[in-house]
Amino acid sequence: MSEPSPINTDMLVLRDLLKQTVSPHLHVPTSEDLRILNLACGQCDEAATLVNFAREQTRDQKVQLIGADIRIREILQARAQHAHLPAEFLLEDATQLHRHKELGDNFNMVLLRHQNYWHGTEVWKRIFEQGLARVDENGLLVITSYFDREHQLAVDALQKLGAELVTTHHNLDARKLVTPGKYVDKHIAVFRRR
After folding, report:
1. Bridge partners for 112 per DSSP
2. What is the model's pLDDT at position 3?
3. CA-CA distance, 175 to 56, in Å (whole number)?
4. How far apart are CA 133 and CA 168, in angstroms?
5. Which CATH number fits domain 6-193: 3.30.70.260, 3.40.50.150, 3.40.630.30, 3.40.50.1970?
6. Threshold 0.85, pTM exceeds
7. 38 to 4, 22, 133, 181: CA distances (angstroms)
């Protein structure tokens, strides 16, 4: 029997991380759909994991996943790979979401998986601002990080923008990558708007 692919293993670990860190804090009124916005989603390998996680959080409610990325190739891949899911993938600059009014600001969860804060701090601050502006009054903004230091820098930046840190968690099951100190979803942090 063959071993599961690294991506499949990563998705199992991500599912468990979301259950541990997000589920206890996620509030979805029973009369509403659960909406997730995934910013800088790339080809969105985590789409099915997010949709299944959202379905587990609700009973008989619709789930909507919207992924946004500035790279057309990745968005086209996401659309092709995940056409069977209740998901939409937009070619969108995450620093300019305020121009996309039809997105709304009523997401239960906004995810920035593998944010690259130290590869453009000002750009990521604008993305964080846009993400925080999209969560509803009880919504959560969730980030994951590859590196220890980058995670702390991102947490600090979000708190300076007015986000309240709900929890941060070091993922001991993170898969090590080739770059020294780099792991898949090494840390996860959950925030609320103040």
Report:
1. 143
2. 67
3. 25
4. 21
5. 3.40.50.150
6. yes
7. 25, 15, 14, 25
Give the DSSP H/E element, type plus range, for residue 127.
helix 121-134
Return d(Cα 85, Cα 96) in angstroms, integer.
26
Strands 135-145 and 163-170: unpaired
Tell me how many helices (H) and strands (E) the chain has.
5, 7
The span from the CA of 81 to the CA of 10, in Å, is 17
* CA angle in degrees (0–180, nearest 5) for 189-190-192: 145
Q: Give the DSSP H/E element, type plus range, for residue 97.
A: none
**Domain ranges for the chain:** 6-193
Structure token digits, residue 154: 């991102």
The per-residue pLDDT for 61 is 81
**Parts of the chain with a pLDDT under 50:** none
What local confidence, expressed as pLDDT, does residue 50 receive? Answer: 97
Please tell me whether residue 181 adopts helix, strand or coil conformation: coil
What is the DSSP code string of 2-59? PPPPHHHHHHHHHHHHHHHHTGGG----TTS-EEEEEET-TT-TTHHHHHHHHHHH-S
- Cα–Cα distance for residue pair 135/127, rounded to 1 Å: 13
Question: Residue 192 corresponds to which tokens in the numbers above?
Answer: 């609320």
State residue 30's pLDDT score: 74
